[in-house]
């Protein structure tokens, strides 16, 4: 799987009214930024594009899509820290040193807003309602991070994978007559990376879930037929 490091100079474009369209008209972040003439940038990540966290303090807001946040050590060993989706934010702090750095990898096509974090701090000082909104947002992000930690802390690899599939179905799934279809294709290698397992183990567990008809594959996307029945695999492990 080829990974393309994201080139901000080539891919970021300054937001303008003409480029926004109706798609963003409901987004609370953009509504606030536009109404108060706060400048920001918007760009599109392709699957497997990577944002490297650097010394510049920025806030990234996910308008649409999902990313994996990973801690990468000098030895190239990686630890997945979180799975972020539409509405989540990341990159608030300067997170790098000589021994490790952090990266965000897009799972599918992902649209993101980038804004200087100092601008957010000033907005919190000047606009009390935005300050309340931002605090509530950070609390929500903290709760989601705790939920993800619970998933990857399962001793059983099967429980980790099943919990991840249920989370993806809840946050990034589309209801159909056949069940909940994940909105993007995920390789066995990527699933293994997220739960801290091997591709072989993930392939074996998915094969078992396919045989028991708890999931199926439709156009390379996983379909969860019944979250209730699938969740019982966690209880039984």
Automatic annotation (TrEMBL):
Its main location: plastid. CDD domains: CAP_ED (cd00038), HTH_CRP (cd00092). InterPro entries: cNMP-bd_dom, cNMP-bd_dom_sf, HTH_CRP, RmlC-like_jellyroll, Tscrpt_reg_HTH_Crp-type_CS, WH-like_DNA-bd_sf, WH_DNA-bd_sf. Residues 54-95 form the Cyclic nucleotide-binding domain. The keyword DNA-binding applies. Keywords: Chloroplast, DNA-binding, Plastid, Transcription, Transcription regulation. Residues 155-228 form the HTH crp-type domain. GO terms for molecular function: DNA binding; DNA-binding transcription factor activity. The keyword Glycoprotein does not apply. GO terms for cellular component: plastid. It is found in: Plastid. Pfam families: cNMP_binding, HTH_Crp_2. This is NtcA-like transcriptional regulator. It comes from Pyropia dentata. The gene is ycf28.
């Amino acid at each position: 799987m080829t990974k393309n490091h994201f080139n901000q100079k080539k891919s970021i474009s300054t937001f303008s009214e003409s480029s926004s369209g109706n798609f963003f008209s409901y987004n609370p972040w953009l509504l606030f930024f536009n109404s108060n003439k706060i400048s920001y940038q918007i760009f599109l990540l392709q699957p497997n594009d990577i944002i490297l966290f650097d010394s510049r303090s920025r806030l990234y807001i996910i308008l649409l899509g999902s990313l994996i946040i990973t801690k990468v050590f000098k030895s190239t060993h990686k630890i997945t820290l979180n799975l972020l989706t539409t509405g989540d934010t990341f990159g608030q702090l300067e997170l790098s040193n000589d021994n490790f750095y952090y990266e965000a990898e897009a799972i599918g096509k992902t649209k993101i807003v980038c804004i200087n974090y100092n601008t957010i701090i000033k907005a919190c000082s000047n606009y009390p309602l935005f300050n309340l909104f931002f605090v509530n947002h950070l609390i929500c992000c903290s709760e989601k991070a705790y939920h993800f930690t619970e998933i990857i802390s399962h001793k059983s690899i099967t429980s980790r994978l099943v919990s991840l599939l249920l989370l993806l179905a809840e946050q990034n799934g589309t209801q159909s007559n056949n069940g909940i279809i994940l909105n993007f294709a995920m390789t066995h290698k990527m699933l293994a990376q997220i739960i801290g397992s091997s591709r072989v183990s993930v392939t074996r567990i998915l094969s078992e879930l396919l045989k028991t008809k708890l999931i199926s594959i439709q156009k390379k996307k996983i379909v969860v037929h019944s979250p209730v029945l699938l969740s019982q695999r966690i209880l039984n492990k």
